[in-house]
Write a structure and sequence with these properties.
Helix content is 0%, strand content 6%. The protein is low in regular secondary structure and 203 residues long.
Amino acid sequence: DLSWANLSEANLNETNLTKADLQGTNLTKTNLKEAQLAGATLLDANLSRADLYGANLNRTNLRGNNFRGAELYSATLIYSDLSNADLRDTDMCAVKLSGSTLIGTNLENANLSQADLTGVNLSNANLSQSNLSNVILSGAILEKTILRDAELMFAYIINSNLSGAVLRMANLSGATIIGTNLNGTDLRMANFSNANLINVDLT
């Protein structure tokens, strides 16, 4: 039981913490590279600026957690709940988030390039100024999601729902958008140069 422990800046590289009780634990700047955290209890834990490179956080409840400035490069968070979490300024390049819930999550200025966001729910999330270049958004829900000034170059947006989303000044150059709902989406000053839009609802 590591609940409410202070593990700030500790080295937990490749540690097996599967289903561990880490409630309220201070994991600020902690080295959790390639750690196994699937199913762990992390309620109220502070993971700001933690190094979670390649970590396994599948099927984990991370609602409202503080990840601000954390390193999540190539981490897996499949079927996890990150609703209302603070993921501002995080490096989530090549992260795997398929099937996860991120309703109301703050991802402002996050790097999600090359991320797999298949089947994610990002409704009401804030992705303003985030990097989503080469991202896969297949079967995703982004209703009323804020993507203002976001980078979506060469993104694959397939059979997704972006109704009511804000894409003002977003860069979608070279993006492939197929079978996607953009009904009521704010597209003012968005860049669609060299983009491919097929069977898209722009009403």
